[in-house]
Specification:
The chain has 2 domains: about 70 residues, no CATH class; about 30 residues, no CATH class. Helix content is about 45%, strand content about 5%. The strands form 2 sheets. The chain has a two-stranded antiparallel ribbon. It has a two-stranded antiparallel sheet with strand order 3-4. The longest helix has 20 residues.
Amino acid sequence: MHVDAQIIVVRSVFGGGTYDGYLGDFVDNNGWGLNAIYGAAKGYPKTYFVFGGGSYKFLEFMGWGRETQVTTPIWYSAYPWSSLPQIIIKSELRVALFSKDDRDDEDIDTLLHRI
């Protein structure tokens, strides 16, 4: 989102991976905070005493969020040497290995062969 010549990077795994779900999580958990911070921003939906309107007008808020996005050629990856499928497999492996479920040798061998 672009705010007063400063660029704030906004992305997360919340919201089921969709932009609408991501914004919905923000509104559900911190709608009043969004109104307090962005209430005076150009084009932001009109707020009423911080606690009403603004981000709670979800369709208008989503439109404002999309209009203020800035395209950037920069991409950051914490694991540039791994593809997304590799990261997912390794995450599943980590969860399986550190779970409290009893695993036999065959299960462990199957998990390790996925790497």
